[in-house]
Amino acid sequence: MEGTHAYEHYCVMDEVIYYKGRIYLVPNSQLRERVLQAAYDSPLFEHQGFRKTYMVVQKRFTWKGLKENVLQHVRECEACQRNKGELTHPTGLLQPLPIPKGKWESISMDFITRLPTVQGKDCIHIVVDRLTNFAHFFAIPTRYTAANVVKFFFQEIFRLHGSPRT
């Protein structure tokens, strides 16, 4: 056929490069953006996301960095960013915790980590009585295991206040 040159995987026909049967777009081709817009922004495809857009484009076109270009185009779509729906499930109604009947009957615990190390300790273990809001603060190393924290709890809190119910 006149005007056709074939190489191993390439074929040049009427000044269009085909690679494995798909149109190859050279670097810096202005057609790349137009192809992405046609495959993603057109009413026919209606912003169907990365996977479907990539499948549509790669059926007929190819270029170096195609996947990254499609991903970037989808991420940067102004219409999608404006109209993106919430991806989390709606939260249920908040239920307050019951008020404890006695001191140290119900406690909460927390840890503040990634603090500057002082005398080998870089974490603060906090234990709070939910009725009185009285709190104990203990400096501990973050390398403590759950078993170490339980042992520490019995040595410091249980010794002073007994066993909490919750």
Write the topology of this structure.
Layout: E1 4-6, E2 10-13, E3 16-19, E4 22-24, H1 31-40, H2 50-60, E5 61-62, H3 66-75, H4 78-83, E6 107-112, E7 123-129, E8 135-140, H5 146-161
Parallel strand pairs: 4-5
Antiparallel strand pairs: 1-2, 2-3, 3-4, 6-7, 7-8
Helix pairs in contact: 1-2, 2-3
Description:
There is one protein chain. This protein is 32% helix and 21% strand. It has 166 residues and is an alpha+beta fold. The chain has two domains: 4-83, Endonuclease III, domain 1, CATH 1.10.340; 107-161, Nucleotidyltransferase, domain 5, CATH 3.30.420.10. The strands form two sheets. A five-stranded mixed β-sheet has the order 1-2-3-4-5. A hairpin with a 2-residue loop joins strand 3 (16-19) and strand 4 (22-24). The longest helix is centred in the last third of the chain and has 16 residues, at 146-161.
Q: Mind telling me the CATH class of the largest domain?
A: Mainly Alpha
Task: Work out the helix count.
Answer: 5
Q: What percent of residues are in strands?
A: 15-25%
As laid out across the biggest beta sheet, the strand order is 1-2-3-4-5
N-to-C SSE string, H for helix and E for strand: EEEEHHEHHEEEH
Task: List its salient traits.
single chain; 166 residues; 2 domains; Nucleotidyltransferase, domain 5; alpha+beta; 5 helices; Endonuclease III, domain 1; five-stranded mixed beta sheet
What's the short version?
The protein is of the alpha+beta class. The protein contains 5 helices and 8 strands, in the order ββββααβααβββα.
